[in-house]
């Protein structure tokens, strides 16, 4: 089911998420909701806290991004044998990161209309459970690694703003204010902070 996406200034986006118990009754529906919500918002990654659930679960679709990038540019984002993935990550743990760093533009469904350069490792190794709760230990590179690191940040309560220099963060003051006040128009349902009524 499509859920509203929590946007900037919601407290749940700034809290680290615990691992989800394997037998959690909400897990199956949570995964379905994440895919429905991400596809509806035309995103390529989404984490559970972004739909209001504080558990370590996120999804990635770097396969459709691969297909949408012109063949002449793919080498900037993908290794030659990589065509992207569609995968669910449960209780993921970052095991290794490469010293090779690259910079690329990132956006976030919780920070609509904001796109900024972020530097991240090119290659990572992580362990996680897939949606069948099978333990995986894999290496990912390029854009797929970037997307996983972005979602892992969400699981740790970190937004991409944290990767910007303090000066750049200050420059965003008015933009962030309009996001949290719902002034930025989006094509998907969002959840803003409820105003307290006396
Ligand atoms: Zn995000």
TrEMBL record:
Fe cation binds at residues 108, 150, 154. Its cofactor is Fe(2+). Transmembrane segments: none annotated. Binds 1 Fe(2+) ion. Keywords: Hydrolase, Iron, Metal-binding, Protein biosynthesis. SUPFAM superfamilies: Peptide deformylase. It catalyses: N-terminal N-formyl-L-methionyl-[peptide] + H2O = N-terminal L-methionyl-[peptide] + formate. It is an enzyme of class 3 (hydrolase). The active site is at residue 151. Gene3D superfamilies: Peptide deformylase (3.90.45.10). Its EC number is 3.5.1.88. Pfam families: Pep_deformylase. Removes the formyl group from the N-terminal Met of newly synthesized proteins. Requires at least a dipeptide for an efficient rate of reaction. N-terminal L-methionine is a prerequisite for activity but the enzyme has broad specificity at other positions. Belongs to the polypeptide deformylase family. This is Peptide deformylase. It comes from Flectobacillus roseus. The gene is def.
């Amino acid at each position: 089911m499509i859920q509203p996406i929590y946007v900037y200034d919601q407290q749940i986006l700034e809290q680290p998420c615990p691992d989800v118990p394997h037998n959690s009754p909400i897990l199956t529906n949570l995964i379905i909701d994440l895919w429905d919500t991400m596809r509806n918002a035309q995103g390529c990654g989404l984490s559970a806290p972004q739909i209001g659930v504080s558990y370590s679960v996120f999804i990635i679709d770097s396969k459709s991004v691969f297909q949408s990038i012109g063949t002449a540019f793919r080498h900037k984002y993908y290794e030659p044998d990589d065509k992207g993935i569609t995968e669910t990550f449960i209780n993921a743990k970052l095991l290794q990161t490469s010293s090779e760093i690259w910079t690329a533009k990132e956006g976030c469904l919780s920070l609509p209309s904001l796109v900024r350069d972020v530097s991240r490792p090119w290659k990572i190794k992580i362990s996680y459970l897939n949606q069948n709760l099978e333990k995986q230990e894999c290496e990912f590179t390029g854009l797929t690694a970037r997307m996983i690191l972005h979602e892992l940040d969400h699981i740790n309560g970190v937004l991409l703003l944290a990767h910007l220099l303090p000066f750049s963060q200050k420059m965003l003051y008015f933009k962030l204010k309009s996001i949290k006040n719902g002034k930025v128009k989006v094509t998907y349902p969002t959840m803003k902070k409820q105003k307290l009524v006396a």
